[in-house]
Amino acid sequence: MKSLPLKPSVISLLFSNILVIILALVQGWEVATVLWVYWMQSVIIGSFQFLRILSLKNFSAENFTINNQPVSPTTQTKTFTAFFFAFHYGFFHFIYAIFLFNFFIKQPLDFPYLFLGGFIFFINHLFSYHHNRILDQAKKQNIGQLMFSPYARIIPMHLIIVFGAILGQSSLIIFLLLKTLVDIVMHSIKHKLNYSIQTS
Questions:
Q1: For position 151, what pLDDT does the model report?
Q2: Does residue 180 sit within a domain?
Q3: Degrees (nearest 5) of the Cα angle 35, 49, 59?
Q4: pLDDT in tens, 179-193
Q5: Cα radius of gyration rounded to whole Å, the chain
Q6: Chain mean pLDDT for the chain
Q7: Which of 189, 195, 44, 193 is nearest to 125 (CA)?
């Protein structure tokens, strides 16, 4: 098994996270603005994962069930899975948005900074999406793993930033750095699994 090289997608993800942290420090973003930016990042991740599932050509449905019944790797399975993921993932972020709105209702939102941070992450994940499309053509992906992988990535990072926000502005940067580390590690684990299967 070959060692995993530092992929351009990892470099892009690291750069986008560090850039947002630097902008938040230099421009003095409010805590609420920072958290909404990362909420937007999660929505962007889910949106591209929805498109990725829909664009699968040749995939596996091994160990994947719908209503406790095994399924075949058909277009119907792919379509149902993509839209079920969109609904479930979207509902999760709807509840999370209500939490953010109520918890930080007294903090003003800097909309130019909000859209700037969202744009940075959009460009990063657009690049990652195109990179993943190449992987999907080279390897038969498991549709169940694709459906659940965003949750494994975003839940730890959101727990980190929420705890950082609760502890206040001074500690938020430390938690954002931890968030970046978690983001990179989870991203690398996912791609390491793909790389190991292809080269072992």
A1: 83
A2: yes
A3: 155
A4: 788 777 776 666 554
A5: 18
A6: 80
A7: 44
